[in-house]
Amino acid sequence: MTCARTHRYRVTLAERLLHPDNPTLATQIGGRRALFVTTPSVARIYGQEVQALIDRHGLRAELVVLSCSEQHKTLSQVAWLCEEARRRGLDRTGVLVGIGGGVCTDIVSVAASAIRRGISSIRVPTTLIGLIDAGIGLKGAVNFAGKKSFLGCFYPPEAVLIDPAFLRTLPQQLLRVGLAEIIKIALVCDAELFELVVAHGADLLTSSFAAPGEPAKRVLWLSIQRMLEELEQNPYEDRTYERLVDFGHTVSPLLEAATDFTLHHGEAVAVDMALSATLAEELGLLSARDRGRILASLRAAGLPVHVSRLDAALAGEALREAMRHRGGAVNLVVPVAIGRATFLKHPSEIPERALEAAIRRLSSEPAGASPLMLPALAEPPLG
Ligand SMILES: NC(=O)c1ccc[n+]([C@@H]2O[C@H](COP(=O)([O-])OP(=O)(O)OC[C@H]3O[C@@H](n4cnc5c(N)ncnc54)[C@H](O)[C@@H]3O)[C@@H](O)[C@H]2O)c1
Ligand SMILES: [Zn+2]
Question: Which atom of ligand 1 approaches the CA of 167 most closely?
Fold first, then answer.
């Protein structure tokens, strides 16, 4: 037997998406029964607008609110959502509409892949990480047994609707962590994007990506475009285990787990990128100048470049875990210039003394911003 499925979905700019007269979402859903899934903060800010949109267009839809902190990115949240879908009579043509950050759309994707073995999902990302990364790809995952994103799926959405106006209500700290993922994609494949972030990062943060207008749009769209180009080459990660977008995502999963998921994903990615860049310099693969620019860009974005929890033991375990995840190869992504990266495939290419020297060096330099304390942001579980 041979079976294959080709899936196409559009990532569309949909400005003023929640305006009651905007037909975009209603047209996408049509007459199907839909469950809108969002987070407590998003419900607080946008819940009424969503409900007004549902009413205005006579959608067969209801809105449910999911606990959406990283600590709640678990199978029980998926099960809760599946039960809500069942209770509200979602049939096989039903659709889940995830309106939220990466945690929300990750949980929605896993639930959509599981309900009746797969129903449709639409993503409306509302955070910066969501708009340029988590919300536009085809993966969903939850944390399991203390492991970051250990259970999940490749399950493409039917559509992604991008409205940058959601960023206006996003707390600054969550914009900063989004910049980490923008810097990630810039460093591995787009020097122009990196220069735009260096030139305009501060203004983009203070204006919530509203100003300066042209650079803000360009940074968002270049980030989205580059991410989709990278994903499209290997959407199900079965063509190769060498993925440039894994830059910053080797040590970070263990760092997140080691801090009980109190270190935000984007901050862990920033620390991982700083380590990878420092290691690259130790190995003679990256110039001191470029390493300096990379760390400066992370510090300027208000991100940490080192946390005390990162030690040689954790880094060593992260490399072993990477091998379990990447078909026996480490495939550590390290930058070789701004906009270009390479893979360190075999453990022998990452000598322990170089790794230790990189960590020592980072711990003796300014650590960048202190990490946000996620419990302070965490939303209460649903009663
Ligand atoms: N599936 C993927 O390919 C992929 C890629 C990157 C990241 N991720 C995952 O994404 C998660 C991080 O996502 P995130 O940065 O979006 O954080 P998040 O999903 O944890 O959201 C952070 C907080 O922002 C609030 N929020 C969302 N939109 C808002 C808005 N417009 N205004 C005010 N508050 C708002 C949410 O309620 C939540 O409390 C991590 O779990 C990470 O693993 C997944
Ligand atoms: Zn990420």
Answer: 31
Whole-angstrom distance, CA of residue 159 vs CA of residue 25 = 10
- pLDDT at residue number 370: 82
Task: Quick: pLDDT tens for 323-359.
Answer: 999 989 999 999 999 999 999 999 999 999 999 999 9
> Among all chains, which residue has been given the structure tokens 């170089």?
354
- Distance separating alpha carbons of residues 42 and 34, to the nearest angstrom: 18
Ligand 1: residue whose CA is nearest its atom 10:
102
Question: What is the identity of the amino acid at 371?
Answer: P
Ligand 1 site-directed mutation target among 226, 265, 273, most atoms within 8 Å of CB: 265
Q: How far apart are CA 300 and CA 258, in angstroms?
A: 26
What lies within 8 Å, CB to CB, of 138 at 6+ separation is 7, 109, 154, 155, 156, 157, 231, 235
3-state helix, strand, coil in the chain (%, to 5): 50, 15, 35
What is this structure's pTM?
0.95
Ligand 1 nearest-atom number relative to CA 139:
1
What ligand 1 atom has the least distance to the C-alpha of 104? 19
Structure tokens at 204: 């983009």
Q: Greatest CA span in the chain, whole angstroms? A: 64
Ligand 1 pocket mutation, candidates 41, 73, 181, 250, criterion most atoms within 8 A of CB: 41
**Secondary structure of residue 35 in the 3-state scheme:** strand
Residue range 58-69, pLDDT digits in tens: 999 999 999 888
